[in-house]
Amino acid sequence: MREIRRRELRRTIAFFLILLCPGLVYADNSISKIGVTGNRLVDKDVILMAAKAKAGDELAEDLVQDNMKLIYELGYFSNVGAEIEEFENGKYLIFKVRENSVVKDIEITGNRVLSLSEIKAVIKTKPGSIFNIPVFNDDVRKINDLYKDRGLALSQVADVKIESEGGTVKIVIVEGTIEEIRVEGNDTTQEWVVLREFVIKPGEVYNADKVRRSLQQIFNLGFFETVKPSHLKGKDPDNVILVVSVKEQRTGTASFGGGYSSSNGFVGFIQVSKKNFQGRGQTVNVKTEFGGVTNYEIGFFEPWFRHKPISLGVNFYNTKVNRELYDINGNYVNEYDERRTGGDITLGKKLAYFTTGAITFRQEKIDITPDTIAGLSLEDDEMQSLSYNLTRDSRDNVFQPTFGAYDNMMVTKTGGFLKGRNSFTRYRGTLRRYYEFMPKNVFACRLIYGLIDLSSGDVPDYEEFGLGGSGTLRGYKNREYTGRELLVANFEVRHIFSDKMTGILFFDTGDVNKTVENRFNLDKQGVGIGISVRSPIGPIRLDYGKGNNGRGGRTYFTMSETF
Fold it and tell me: How much is the CA Rg of the chain, to the nearest whole Å?
């Protein structure tokens, strides 16, 4: 009976203690102090700041495990444990850590394209610092991103070794290479015609940017309707076989026709052009007119002369063109026939990926009928000229560009040591830019500046720059204005309906000077609309433009793009 009374008394006392002083009851299970052991280089406060446990917290297994994880995630330790001791009516929680080794050296192997300095510049792990796992994982990601940013899509960190004793971090990089390049679908085109366009070769590290530029360069040849890449695993798992599938398209055209006029009688023509002659990438074109008028044009172009990146072009021609003359106000004055007979030879060389240079020698005889029109210089001439041409072309697609640039500078010299009645130098510069501002919408602009520097004699009217027509200023007649100095600006907004058809809104402005003044009014302007269609025989362009000269609109039909 007495024992029962004692138990009831103890329960009563415990109940009142819980109500009045609950902290005294659980004091032996609360955290009174937190400490750290095993750290040598990492400051104690840094470790305790990572932990969430505080003095006064009730000690529990989950609390200890969670805080050990938080300390481990600092990345400085290979092991984190905990020990509990009695301390002043509570518990002393001690975190026991084992620090990672100090990094003594970083060894990087397998890199060929990127230098050691480039790789080490992006990583934070440095010799002399404590090895940190999260930081190092981020370093690996940065190295992989660096390769991707350079277009090296198959290159990455393949293995990592850490010597805990020596403190050496070893990073092994695998730069995936192109084992082989195959071409499929080329029934007519020789395989080497396609392969020579690649700026990347088998054995080189796979570079997505170079592959993309190579494929675009193949498409820009104009021989193929589609060019599609695919990849196969090489004999070495880290290598790749690049397969290029092409679909050939028609590259030759032939046309013929004829007509009758009272002055010339029956006149017929035959025109044949082949861009990929015998599948060798060469271009051959022949055009002849017969009957009352005898004209011919014969041309040959070899883009890789003797299998080297040197182009060779040869042309012979005998052409007759009727020219109309206008006064300074654009009013019709007279007309004449201009016949040119001669030929030219051009040698070109690729100077850089986007840049080519060329030199052209031309010799021709010019016959003008009639050659006596009051106030004009229209004398016959036999002349030679030497032209220097520098071109930089970074357009994504030469047939339907959506971004990139095309810049050309040409200097043509005649007279002096070259045959000719007159001596002058012609300078002509062209800048083109293309910007895609919305899907299937492109803003295109062109700026042309020309200058003729006369040394002796005169500049015949037929050698002056012409302003007006589909190639310069739409809304005006062809060569409505002529002069020795030219400035033209063209602006187009193009909407690509499909890969075959494009609609255009345009604005043109320009001016010419009869003498070199370097001052232009740019008061001659034209606006209009157009449509461009890619056909089996080449681009067909139809423009309607209206000038600000009050003469109404004009329609232009051409077999080429304006720019």
Answer: 40
What are residue 259's DSSP bridge partners? 267
Residue 94, C-beta contacts closer than 8 angstroms, at least 6 positions apart? 34, 35, 36, 37, 82, 83, 84, 85
Determine the longest span between alpha carbons in the chain, in angstroms.
150
Q: Is the pTM of this model over 0.70?
A: yes
Q: CA 291, CA 48: separation in Å to the nearest integer?
A: 102
Confidence band, pLDDT 50/70/90 cuts, at residue 375: low
Q: Locate 540 and state its tokens.
A: 């067909």
Burial class (CB in 10 A: 0-12, 13-18, 19+), 166: exposed
- Residue 328, CA distances (Å) to 325, 373, 388, 421, 449 in order: 10, 16, 31, 26, 20
Q: pLDDT tens digits, residue range 103-155?
A: 999 999 999 899 999 999 999 999 988 999 899 999 999 999 999 999 898 99
List domains and CATH numbers for the chain: 2-99 (3.10.20.310), 105-175 (3.10.20.310), 178-248 (3.10.20.310), 303-558 (2.40.160.50)
Interatomic CA distance for residues 555 and 550, integer angstroms: 15
Q: Enumerate residues 6+ apart whose C-beta is below 8 A from 319.
A: 295, 297, 339, 340, 341
Residue 263: strand, helix, or coil = coil
Q: 533 falls in which pLDDT band (50, 70, 90)?
A: very high
